[in-house]
Structures are given as C-alpha cells and as structure tokens.
C-alpha cells in the first residue's frame, strides 16, 4: 500500500507534521504494561509467541470477518469484501482493536461517488493531531524517517480517515486493547512454557549437586579445578543431547540429586490458569480453545453462543457503525447490519424470537418486521 504515493496525487506531500495546539504523542512509545513492555513488545510476545493469545485473537477476528451482513448498497458491500493491499478489512480492523484498541481506516477516493478502497493503517504508525478545541483534525502516519499528514476530512468535507477505538477511561483519543489486560497472563504463560522446555532439555529431571568429599578437614577445590569441573559439566552433561549420559567422577566427588515434589514439578495447572486469564481478557470462552477443567458453560454450543453474543457481535457493531458514519459523508449508504438469521450459532435464539413474534396477534405485519430487523413490507 503506497500511502505516500496516493497523497502526492491530490496535494503536495507534507513530510513534516504540523503540530497544532493539543498534539497527542505516540501512545505506543510511552504506554507500558505491568511487565514493563510497550505495546509493540506485548504484541510480539502474545501474537507471535503465545498460542493461546493468537488463537483467541484469530478466533474473534475471523468470526467478525465471516459474519453475513445485510447491506443495501452493493458498492458498499463490495468495499467491505474486497481485499485492499492483500488485507481482509474487517479481520484486520478487529485484530487491531483487540491488540491495540485502535484501528485507522483510510478512505481512498476514486472516480465514483464512493471511496475506491478502504485500507486499515497500522495503528503503531499513527498519531493524532488535535485542533484548538481538542478535536482530532489530522493523523500523522510514520514510516521510518518519513511522516505523512492525513487530514481527517478532505476539501469537500468527506471523511478521509475513520478512527475506531475502544473505551479507554484514562485517554480521550486512544483506545485500550484487550492485550493490555492480558499482558501479565501472557508473560506467565510464556515463562511457564520456557521453564518446561528447560526441564525437557535436561531430561525432565531436576538438577543435582556435586559434593566434594574432602579427605583432609578444611580442604577445598582450587580455583583451577573448580573452573575445569564447570567446563566439563557444561560440555559433557548439560542439554537434551547429553540426557542419560553416565557421569564419571574423580576421587573426592560424588553426585547428589536434588528432588522436587510433584506439586513443584506440575506447571500444567499454572499454564491453564494463565491461559484462562488470557481467554477472559479477549472475551473467548476457555472451552472453545481447549482449556481443560472449565465448567462455566454447559456445553460447547452454549460457549459458542456466548462468544457471538458477548464478543463478536458487539465488536462488529462498533466497526460497522463507525464505517457507516464515515461513508455517510460520501453519500447515502443505507443499512449495514449483521444478518443474525444466517449465523448458525444463534439459530436457536432466532427461532425462538420468530415463534414469539409470529404468535403476537396484537402486532401488525410492519411491527413484526421491525422487531425481526426488516423494513416495512412493500404493498
């Protein structure tokens, strides 16, 4: 996506950002979790290295992108479904909202009345510029040493960048992602995995101690002997490749194993607890990602229904409402809502609602259609 090339076609590129009253600096450089990491490091630790966090994120984002939609305007439907720069728009926006808490969608003008493309910018590259009243007036997009200033609206008053963000009680202009709350659990889960990996590298046995049995009272190993012993132990007996190798000790040395209790060796429960916290932060029922021992939901169907009702649909509603508000400045866009009747996880609830509405004799046909999310009947 050549964002700098696009801007230069319409107006002269301004590579030095204009900083009016109320400049808001880059939140990703100054925000840190309890682990001391900024948001970029958190994303690398979670999405790139933690299977639970990545699965939760992908589960929600793919569900958002795969939800059937009711869109009146065919051109708007094409904008949402087409790939811009290889990205799936709704999936990208949902992922950014969960990880960053912010998503920036650029509306690229074309020959027609509607935008030619909708492209989700990387949130860690975007900063907000405020006007004198404290409202967002532009967005500074940084790539390497270059900075491109993107106006919030173009000369015709049409929205150029739609900023979608989650609620953040301590910031007026940036959202707060799920990852901030899950950062500590991600660190614990990754540390537990690293510990288990270290145990496997040492044949899954706790380490022991070399005890020097001095023949003369007060005798000890010399510094040279001690360093030689350490080097031989590291070369010959440490690591998974040397697991089970017999140890030959010289006179005066004996091996004493240091045992650990089964409770100290059991890190599975610790990992499951951390995984459950990660899933909770992302709004995913633990049952759906295979965490054992969770009996919050009666069965898989109830857990799937909770995922859609409590996580997917609220996020999708926020995204669609924000995009509709931005597209409305370009022209009439009509209805943009999820097609609830076509979501298999909610089929039982929708069937119950249809039966209740059909049995309500005191409602007119148009009132029944309104309750079910349809427009007035054509006569």
Task: Please summarize what this structure is.
Helices cover 42% and strands 14% of the residues. With 379 residues, the chain is α+β, with helices and mostly antiparallel strands. The chain has three domains: 1-203 and 272-338, no CATH class; 207-258; 345-379, no CATH class.
Feature tags:
379 residues, alpha+beta, 3 domains, three-stranded antiparallel sheet, 13 helices, 42% helix
Shape: flat
Please give the radius of gyration in angstroms.
Answer: 29 Å
Please work out how many helical segments DSSP would assign: 13
Q: H/E element string?
A: HHHHEHHEEEEEEHEHEHHHEHH
Largest sheet: 3 strands, antiparallel
- In the residues, how many domains can be counted? 3
Number of strands: 10
Q: Helix coverage percent of residues?
A: 40-55%
| Uncertain residue segments | 4-36
Which structural class do you get from the secondary structure elements?
A: alpha+beta
Description:
- With about 375 residues, the chain is an alpha+beta fold.
- It folds into three domains: about 1-205 and about 270-340, no CATH class; about 205-260; about 345-379, no CATH class.
- The chain is about 40% helix and about 15% strand.
- The chain has helices spanning about 5-10, 25-30, 40-50, 50-65, 75-80, 90-100, 180-200, 225-235, 260-265, 270-280, 300-325, 345-360, 365-370, and strands at about 70, 100-110, 115-120, 125-130, 135-145, 145-150, 160-165, 210, 255, 335-340.
- Strand 2 and strand 3 form a beta hairpin.
- Helix 3 (about 40-50) crosses helix 7, helix 4 (about 50-65) packs parallel to helix 10 and helix 7 runs antiparallel to helix 10 (about 270-280).
- The longest helix is centred in the last third of the chain and has 28 residues, at about 300-325.
- The radius of gyration is 29 Å and the shape is flat.
